[in-house]
Write a structure and sequence with these properties.
Tetracycline Repressor, domain 2, 192 residues, DNA-binding transcription factor activity, Arc Repressor Mutant, subunit A, mainly alpha, DNA-binding, 10 helices, DNA-bd_HTH_TetR-type_CS
Length: 192
């Protein structure tokens, strides 16, 4: 069954906003450009969103809602950590990376936009490790549940640094090192 025309139009507008954010950044994004890319009128866009910030926030929320997936249950803490790190890497090297880069400068100048980006793109990552750590505690692999927010922040920072700062590969070998040399010691350091 095809979604109603209004939903199709909204999807097209939000997709256009995300594409333009990734291509030209927040500062260069205009409602005219979104309308042209979505093949919609500006009036259609303004009936739903009052301005660029509201449109971008809605696009980010839609994007992250469809990208969010629960932590996989692989049966081992290391397996789950690697699955989470792989998912984070794949999202970061995909469209999310371009979105974050397109928004970094704008976040400094627009507090509402910054709050929405932090809540949806960064906040989601902070909770990503909690289910895996809880399951590891239930299986007896760890005796307490460590600070999942700190673990997520460290993992995100190292992935971000590799991708945008050092340019070193984000291959499976690096993910293995990250899990074994950084994340697992953090987890086990909290349980001793």
């Amino acid at each position: 069954m095809t979604p109603p025309r209004g939903e199709q139009r909204e999807d097209a507008v939000l997709r256009a906003a995300l594409e333009l954010l990734a291509e030209i950044g927040y500062g260069s994004l205009t409602m005219d450009a979104v309308a042209a890319r979505a093949k919609a009128s500006k009036a259609t866009i303004y009936r739903r969103w009052s301005g660029k910030a509201e449109l971008v926030i809605a696009a980010i929320e839609r994007h992250t809602a469809t990208a969010d997936q629960p932590a996989p249950d692989t049966g081992t803490l290391r397996g789950e950590l690697l699955a989470l790190l792989t998912s984070m890497r794949d999202r970061l090297t995909g469209e999310s990376a371009a979105l974050v880069l397109g928004l970094l400068t704008a976040m400094r100048d627009d507090p509402a936009l910054a709050a929405a980006v932090r809540a949806r793109l960064i906040g989601v990552k902070r909770d990503a490790f909690a289910p895996a750590l809880r399951r590891a505690a239930e299986r007896g692999e760890i005796t307490t549940t460590p600070d999942h927010e700190l673990i997520a922040e460290v993992a995100s920072a190292l992935l971000f640094s590799r991708l945008f700062v050092t340019g070193e590969p984000l291959d499976d070998a690096f993910l293995d090192r990250l899990a074994d040399a950084v994340i697992l010691p953090l987890v086990h350091g909290a349980t001793t």
